[in-house]
Write a structure and sequence with these properties.
This protein is of the alpha/beta class. The protein is about 40% helix and about 10% strand. It has eleven helices and six strands. The protein has a four-stranded mixed beta sheet with strand order 4-3-5-6, sandwiched between helices. A two-stranded parallel ribbon has the order 1-2. The radius of gyration is 19 Å and the shape is globular.
Length: about 250
């Protein structure tokens, strides 16, 4: 785990929603500020960031956040990126936290998470929201990769992708082909980060999340996100693009 401010290529497309806040906060961290202090300086999150030692022993992390509106943060990349997501997707993060807190208050902390907490944690760490035409959503759900990235490739110009999972972003600091996120479909009319945040916060519920309504998406397969996916054979790698079915490219 990275424990000092890393180099980040903010020009990569997946950073666009968090770039402005991220660049400024990263500069403060690199200059010697603790991660919590660097994040608080942005004044754009609905919570405060506090040092990890502020979390009382025995109190669940998510419950502390819910009660105190404060996020314990270590001086590492994982928690730094979590803070950026709090800053840019405030409604969604508050809703995810509320779902966690409700489950913990009712059931306590078990040796294994229940279905709601498991799904919420998975999305919080590795989730992506995709607003796209229905044809793309269907191909993704059915894992028809050669349709999704072949015959339907022009439709990606109409799609919007928001990486919300901070663990997924952490992997994208040093990109590699097999990075896979868990995608929730969203209406195609969503265009801005603010619209996406508002829609997702309203949509999220225990009942909707418990079945894990996600589709796997290798992120570097997204057109325009990685130069390598323009090369012949990129999507033929079955170790990454594992599908229910593969449909041959036309022609």
């Amino acid at each position: 785990m990275v424990t000092q401010a890393p180099e980040i290529d903010w020009a990569a497309p997946w950073w666009a929603p968090v770039r402005t806040t991220g660049e400024e906060a990263l500069a403060r961290w690199a200059a010697g500020a603790p991660v919590a202090e660097a994040l608080n300086a942005a004044r754009s999150a609905p919570v405060r960031f506090v040092p990890q030692h502020a979390l009382p022993e025995g109190l669940p992390y998510e419950l502390f956040i819910f009660k105190q509106r404060a996020v314990p943060s270590r001086d590492n990349l994982h928690d730094f990126l979590n803070g950026l997501i709090w800053s840019r997707y405030p409604r969604t993060k508050l809703r995810l936290n509320a779902l966690q807190a409700t489950e913990i208050t009712r059931d306590g902390v078990r040796s294994t998470r229940g279905p709601v907490r498991d799904a919420v944690t998975l999305f919080d760490e590795s989730g992506v929201l995709l607003g796209a035409p229905q044809a793309l959503q269907d191909a993704l759900r059915e894992r028809r990769w050669l349709d999704l990235f072949g015959s339907l490739r022009p439709l990606w110009k109409e799609a919007r992708l928001w990486v919300i999972g901070h663990a997924a972003l952490e992997k994208l600091v040093s990109p590699y082909k097999s990075i896979t996120a868990h995608v929730l479909p969203a209406p195609a009319h969503l265009e801005t980060l603010e619209q996406a945040d508002a829609w997702l916060a309203e949509w999220l519920s225990a009942g909707r999340m418990a079945p894990k309504p996600f589709a796997p998406l290798p992120l570097l397969g997204v057109p325009g996100w990685w130069a390598g996916n323009e090369e012949a054979g990129f999507y033929d790698d079955a170790s990454v693009f594992r599908g229910k079915t593969l449909i041959s490219r036309p022609g």
